[in-house]
Amino acid sequence: MRILVLLTLVACTTNNNTAPPGDDDASCSQIAATWAITGTCGDDSCVIAQSGCTLTQVSCTSGSHSTSGEIDGDSFTYRGVGPTGAPSTCRGTNSGNTISGTCTVDNVGTCTFSGRRN
């Protein structure tokens, strides 16, 4: 239904101003918040900041952090470092006030997480 409404709106409007690809606020979840995280990745508290569909910062009390990521619809990905400083990539989905996904830490393995918006 969301796609049909979007297509209808696009068909009825003319706009010469175009946003850069991947930066349309309407096409991505708003996940900027403080999140209480649980799962096999460990309990944590993480603050996520975003600008449009770009994740500008992930900062966790464990020391995990990132300044590089993107949101596509309800899915998100960010790359950074885990609590030990090892490079890691996390992928997940947002559903209202919850997130869930996996993080893969280079040369270590993959863990799961879920979070609740504070």
CATH class label: Mainly Beta
Count of discrete domains: 1
The radius of gyration is 16 Å
What percentage of amino acids are in beta strands? over 45%
List unreliable stretches of 5+ residues. 1-20
Our count of helices gives 1
CATH fold annotation: Lipocalin
Helix-residue proportion: under 10%
In short:
With 118 residues, this protein is mainly beta.
What features would you describe in this structure?
Strand 3 and strand 4 form a beta hairpin. The protein contains one helix and eight strands; from the N terminus they run αββββββββ. The radius of gyration is 16 Å and the shape is globular. The chain has one domain: Calycin beta-barrel core domain (Lipocalin, Beta Barrel). It is mainly β and 118 residues long. An eight-stranded antiparallel barrel has the order 1-2-3-4-5-6-7-8. The N terminus is likely disordered.
